[in-house]
């Protein structure tokens, strides 16, 4: 089963080219308010939803975000996570003030939009919601966590691929300037290792790191790239330390904290020096990548890398259950 999982992760790298321009349900040359690419939001239970709506619906948006408009939203969203559900009334009000129509179903929303931001904070309904978007053939960005289990995440990506529906997922932390400079500009030469950190609050019904640790794990993978073969995890009541060994022998670590001041960042180690990765830079860099994705139909992050990130976090859970022993990434329970 381990090999079948790995083969699917590798196969999924083809998704970026399999679902291309021919699948897009709109013109790439929209240049007025009347023919803007219409964005629909599923889930008004996270701060990401009004944040993206404000960026895309700004009176004078950045050039990278021009030609888009959030036109409709379906609020739900978490119903059984109180901290998320309690946000919905205020976020409905915020997006309505931006001219966004509130729909009473996902199906009604899908009839009114060209592309989708699947923002529901709770990973448990994500598979069912994603299937509706895929059935409607709408390209979609699916926010963290992609789903509440690795099995569901695989199904979402498999079904998007088989239906040639473009899909993209990433944490906004991937687009920290220094992390991008290390990965794509050779800022420190050959990457030798990375120590990343973020909050790692836990939510019932999700593997531990899926809920919030995803941010720091994505920083780690942005710097290191894919290719992690095994994971070990140690933990206390307050902190998790996850150590990954890459196929080429490099070591990367993620430290997640559940108490105290919550910050994001890390240090990258390279053949030409080390670099502190800096601080969170907001949603705008991710929104620009989402806009680029909606225009091209090609995910800026290889789907295989996204799948490996979640396999890494699932392996970290398995290591915890086994008392900290090393667990192969992608190992079937």
């Amino acid at each position: 089963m381990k090999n079948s999982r790995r083969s699917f992760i590798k196969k999924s790298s083809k998704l970026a080219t399999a679902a291309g321009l021919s699948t897009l349900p709109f013109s790439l040359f929209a240049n007025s308010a009347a023919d803007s690419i219409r964005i629909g939001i599923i889930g008004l239970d996270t701060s990401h939803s009004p944040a993206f709506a404000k960026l895309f619906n700004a009176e004078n948006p950045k050039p990278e975000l021009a030609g888009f408009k959030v036109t409709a939203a379906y609020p739900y969203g978490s119903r059984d996570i109180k901290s998320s559900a309690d946000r919905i009334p205020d976020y409905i009000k915020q997006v309505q003030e931006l001219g966004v129509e509130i729909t009473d179903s996902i199906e009604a929303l899908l009839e009114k939009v060209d592309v989708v931001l699947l923002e529901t904070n709770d990973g448990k309904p994500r598979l069912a919601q994603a299937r509706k978007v895929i059935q409607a053939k709408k390209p979609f960005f699916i926010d963290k966590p992609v789903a509440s289990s690795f099995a569901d995440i695989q199904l979402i990506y498999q079904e998007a691929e088989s239906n040639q529906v473009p899909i993209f997922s990433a944490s906004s932390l991937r687009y920290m300037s220094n992390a991008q400079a290390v990965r794509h500009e050779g800022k420190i030469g050959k990457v030798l290792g990375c120590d990343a950190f973020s909050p790692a609050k836990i939510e019932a019904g999700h593997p531990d790191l899926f809920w919030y640790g995803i941010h720091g794990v994505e920083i780690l993978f942005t710097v290191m790239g894919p290719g992690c073969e095994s994971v070990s995890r140690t933990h206390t009541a307050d902190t998790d330390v996850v150590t990954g060994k890459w196929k080429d022998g490099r070591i990367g670590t993620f430290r997640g904290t559940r108490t105290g001041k919550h910050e994001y960042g890390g240090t990258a180690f390279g053949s030409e020096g080390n670099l502190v990765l800096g601080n969170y830079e907001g949603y705008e860099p991710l929104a620009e990548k989402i806009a680029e994705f909606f225009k091209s139909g090609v995910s800026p992050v290889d789907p295989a890398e996204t799948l490996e990130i979640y396999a890494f976090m699932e392996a970290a859970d398995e290591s915890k259950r086994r008392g900290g022993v090393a667990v192969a990434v992608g190992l079937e329970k």
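The chain has two domains: 25-138, 173-282+313-328. The longest strand covers residues 191-199.
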